[in-house]
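Summary for the steering committee. One of the milestones for this cycle was to obtain a three-dimensional model of the protein with magnesium ion bound, which we needed before selecting residues for the alanine scan. The sequence and ligand used are listed below.
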Amino acid sequence: MANRDAEETKLRGIAASPGICIGRAYLVDQEGVDVVSKYSVMESNLRDEIKRFKTAVKNAKDELRSIIENTPEELHPHANILETHLVLFEDKMLYDRTIETIEKEKVNAEWAFKKVVSGVKSMFQNIKNSYLRERAEDIIHVSQRIMRKLVGVEAVNIGDIDKRVILVAHDLSPADASQIKTDKIMGLVTERGGRASHTGIIARALEIPAVMGLDHATKLIKNDDLIIVDGSTGIVITRPAEQTLADYGGRQIRYREYQTAVSRDSHLLAETTDGFIVPVMGNIELSDEAASVVEHGGDGIGLYRTEFQYLSGARFPKESELFEKYKRVVEMMAPKPVTIRTLDINGDKAVNGFFDDAENNPALGLRAIRYCLKNPDVFKTQLRAILRAAVFGNVRIMFPMISSCEEVREAKRLLNEAADSLAEEGETFRRDIKIGIMVEVPSAVVMADLLAEEVDFFSIGTNDLIQYLLAIDRDNTDVSHLFQPLNPAIIRMMKHVCDVGGEKGVQVFMCGEMAGEPLYIPLLLGLGINELSMNPQSIPAVKSTIRVLSAKDAGRFAEDVLRRPSASEVMKLLRNEYGDILSDKVYTE
Ligand code: PEP
Ligand code: MG
């Protein structure tokens, strides 16, 4: 019988940070606190038990504070992620409930704490929205740090690892990730987390390849195994054969050479061979990520996802806090545009009590603009901050999840009210900013001609448009093979939006993940998309792709694509037509 251990195995996770690395696995067990026993505590000792819990929290907090102070310079912009963790230490859900449990059940602190954390974890399991789920991971990270202090298990200090390895972990907290030294840690594989998790964001900031959300990684990969991590495709290969090693070694070299080559010109505008300029912008979630957009040569910010500020704190941010963050981004990018998208959260599941009243179908629920229109005070606070920040540069405002003309009109009415209130108070602000909508719900595509009368631009959000048009839950791995940007129905929708935009003089942008993939660029250009926005790391490759294409040829190509009945046939056509031109782009497995 063949020795299974010796067989090459290909594992699939989420492509969280691009690039390829090949090296030895280093398994880190950041938990080490699974086995906790229960014992009763006598009434007279309860005070001491509570004190023991409070001391553990304090020590865990001090430990994190010192990590923040020693965070390497390049990660300073991300230290605020850790600052938010500091607040979570005294989160009522964890802190107060544990003390209550010790008192009521007269049990040891570890047991009480474990019980509270398990309750929180099981509530997380019901959350469908990946963004919220990943924010909830922060609470788990914090609780693990406290538990380690309680049971006296010392954490592996990632900063102390002194050999070149690839980290493999069940989970890695942002605090752990911020200790990574890139001359030692080549890449990351984790069972939990995803692109939008803080650890994913940090991996991209450090520019090390990362595959996250890879189920059972710590069981399938053994310590010291030779592994290949392809963070561009989400593939991890264990015990690779000679040939595979040689293939990936070659790809790794080509990827590096390519990155170096495309980065040289990334600060210049991207112009097709026949003279069309396509602005290539960056998507950000944190204000500090604007620096990465500048560094990668972005022509502006095409999508500023503003929900993070609402989800990381114990309360909704104040106007002044929002204003400060927006102003920083706007000033840093000026005179380049910054497209601030208004709050896109699953309404009542955000922050305060976001575990209560879970919706059965959050993606179809009180999300984004629906939540804002139902909560005009929350919405107007944000609108006022945006209008005030607009004074410092070139701001556009964008409303998410629009599905009807009434929603846009109502959003604009509230925007006017926000402006009027600022005027009455004598605040400095700008009213004359461009207004746009995300086109990500199929009804918005169908109504595009009438919606065009209301706005200055459309921005196609393929992540949700695919989800809603094809009825594919974007977070459900069981149907991820059907999540196809090249599905002809999606292409026809995009074509319709571009045609309407052309007729009505409304610019059509794209800010979904599809925009950041070089292979799709000929089609997007051919359909007539005016501007692309993507994760900052993809900007140089997309700019270099645009420079080798002719808009006229791409237009003819798009006509041909529109006659194809399936995603696989469109892909075949793309490879036939553009495979040679794009052969140096690293885009598929
Ligand atoms: C989209 O839906 O394509 C999009 C860009 O928005 P988000 O991923 O934030 O839903
Ligand atoms: Mg969306």
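Key point for the committee: The pocket of magnesium ion (ligand 2) is lined by residues 400, 440, 461, 463-464 (CB under 6 Å).
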